[in-house]
Amino acid sequence: MNISIEKRQAYSEVLQILNMLDETLLKKVPNKLIEFFKNEKDISYKKDIDVNIPLNQQNLKRETFVILAILNLKYWSDKQEKKKLEEQYMQNEEIYQNKLQSQYSVENIFKNFNTPEKLKPQVPATIEKQTILKKILKFFSKFFSKK
Question: Which residues touch 5 (CB under 8 Å, ≥6 apart)?
Fold first, then answer.
């Protein structure tokens, strides 16, 4: 499995946060998952996390917040809180999908698309179909009109 540096750094941040948690919360997280974070973290990455400052003000990786949200939903929330969080996550996902849909809709993609004149489709001039009889008559009319 190829894990990006960004994720490895997030694992390092998550481990630091887990180590600051109360023992009762830490015990709810499976040891196998904690071991995974330990094995896959970026050992050279050090982030100073201050317990007196809210996490959202500490410039943590987005992936860190995602992992913490999953841990909170899966291991730390009771049934009522879990249901509330799932509804909020579904609303957030719906908003995100609607944003993507409007941003990348076919109408919006081609709305501001400026095509150079050379690439614009040219409407062909109307071509008159001529039968052999018309061609012969045209030939003779030219011949007789010259006299």
Answer: 42
> Cα(17)–Cα(14) distance, rounded to whole angstroms?
5
Minimal CA–CA distance to 73: which of 89, 58, 85? Answer: 85
Of 8, 26, 16, whose CA–CA distance to 63 is shortest? Answer: 8
Which residues, 6 or more positions from 13, have their beta carbon under 8 angstroms from its beta carbon? 47, 49, 60, 61, 64
Q: Distance between CA 55 and CA 47 in Å, rounded?
A: 12
pTM of this prediction? 0.65
Which DSSP helix (H) or strand (E) runs through 33? helix 31-40
pLDDT digits (tens, 9 = 90+) for 13-48: 999 999 999 999 999 999 999 999 999 999 999 999
For the chain, the C-alpha Rg in angstroms (whole number) is: 34
H/E run at residue 102? helix 79-103
